[in-house]
Amino acid sequence: MNRKNKVFLFTALCLMLGIAVYLGWQKAESQSKVLPDFNSLSKPLSDLQPGEGEALVAWVVSRLEGEPNQPPFPEGLKKDEEARVCFITLADGKGGRKVAVGSGWGLHGALTQAAGALSKDPLSKNTRWIKLDIVKGAQALKDLDFGKPLAVDPSLFGIAVDGKLEKTFLPEELSLVALESGRGISLDLSNRLLSETRLGQKNQAIVKNAREYVVFNTLSHFGDGKSAWPLFRGNREWKAYSETDIGLALDKAGKYLARAVKEDGRFVYEYKPLQGREVPDYNVLRHAGTVFAMMELYGEHKDPEVRKAAERAIGYLLRQVRGGTVAGKPVKFVVEQGEVKLGGNGLSALALAEYARVTNDRRYDEVMKGLGEWILATQDANGRFKVHKQSFPLGRVSSFQSEYYPGEAIFALMRIYNLTGEKKWLDAADAGARYQLKVFSLLDDKKLPHDHWLLYGLNEIHRKRPRPEFLEGAMRFARVIIQGQHTRENQPQPDWDGGYYKPPRSAPTATRMEGLNSAYALAKDFGRDADAKQIKRAIQRGTGFLLRMQVGPEIAMYCQDPEASLGGFRESLARTSIRIDYVQHSISALLGRPK
User: Each residue of 570-579: b (16+ CB within 10 Å) or e?
Assistant: First the structure.
């Protein structure tokens, strides 16, 4: 290469280097002035390492409180310089909630901006709960119509209308603004939510249609002032739990039910926590079953408020009891809306028996036995319960047959026997159980009902009159119940682990855990060690799922009245309604689990 070419090459290299330096400076200068938005996101945020999320919560709290000695920002996240978007939500536990969005080049910058906006709001000085949502990844989509169901799962993804930070909804917020029909999003609620909760940004009105929008998912952590934990689908994950955790969950559930009993003894039967609205339905069978669970819990925890509330609920139940005769025998029965049901008598007798068992107060024994006498009087000699429902006062027998009423009656008969020692109750329960097992023996496993009430009864009868068919029948029920359970191996959604149905629901899971608790007790006490081990594993999975279903602070912060919602159990991962039987069965399942 001649000297002239060398000079040219050297000059070109210098020019290129200068351009690179200039462009780098321009980029840095641009980044220092222009904060990123959803369109700037390119590199997804990696999952946080253990402890990092908790450290971020502590760091944000210290900045909000203006502490001079702040905890360190997580070392592994300090070097992050990518475009980041995050949200910080503060709540006072009384329904007040504020949200700030932050964006920056690096997670530190994004969180600093959001915390700075919140620090100027009075709620930052009176906060009870804090939640961090850090955008992990985002994707732009076309044609958003709020009059139609969203094209993505709103329990897992948030949306940014027009891709704008000031028009962004977190997944939990989409539940708040969803139409009750499930067919779209309320524009009024959407705009009100943004105007009432957003800080540090100019609100822009949401309209029905948008040509484009961004869908995003987040890494979320929640803090209650004492500790912090990761969230998935807005719920605490409960991958592991202790006896203390179970005890606290039971205590909160008991307090929820105690609050739910009105002065006249009726329950707030169903409650929609996001709207703070009671649903005006009722069911006396579930009323009685809930009293049973409350008295079970009182027997363990001795909470006087639970007993006092349960006694009011018993008062209401007794006012539904009528007297009469069947074949000349005096009996009692529970009447609701002109109907008498086998399940109503069974669960009511069970509730009164449990009250007597845990308090040694026998004031309700005569009513309990009168309810049992109706069950005896309507049972065939072969053990079949021939009347499942009849009209009152005419007594017209309905053709309706319930899969679960016989099990409820059998369990109630055994509890009456345990209190009175009268052989007729044991005879009737024994005959009823043998008849039911014969009926179920004709069904293949796929059609076998997951009858937890019968399992309760089999556990008690087999200890008084052991029969091979009782033990084998219980093990068959347990095997079929376990086969239907979601696990991490057969279900890609991690929070479905331990649950039943699609999406998994609290009551079906809790009732099956109740049944497995009884099957486990039989397997453990009667030499079925391999079965006991398998059953226990399923119960442990189901217990974790039930803990996810309980309304904790991370869910209550989005409720209209957080205090009224805490401790209740929601219908499912997708539906937030709390009904008394969801709580009832969850309490019984958690109480009866293997220790």
Answer: bbbbbebbbb
Return the structure tokens found at 474.
């219980």
Q: d(Cα 68, Cα 208) in Å, to the nearest integer?
A: 47
- Give 241-282 pLDDT, tens digit per residue: 999 999 999 999 999 999 999 999 999 999 999 999 999 999
Tokens 């969230």 correspond to 231
* Segment 537-562, tens digit of pLDDT: 999 999 999 999 999 999 999 999 99
Which amino acid is located at 450 in the chain?
H
Whether omega for the bond prior to residue 503 falls within 30 degrees of 0, making it cis, is yes
Q: Is 206 helix (H, G, I), strand (E, B) or coil?
A: coil
Write the single-letter amino acid at 469: E
What's the Rg (C-alpha) of the chain?
A: 30
Domain positions in the chain are 40-67+77-232, 238-283+443-595, 320-436
* Length of the chain measured in residues: 595
Provide the 3-class DSSP secondary structure of residue 169: strand
Distance CA 142, CA 157 (A): 16
- Which one-letter amino acid corresponds to residue 175? S
3-state secondary structure of 194: helix
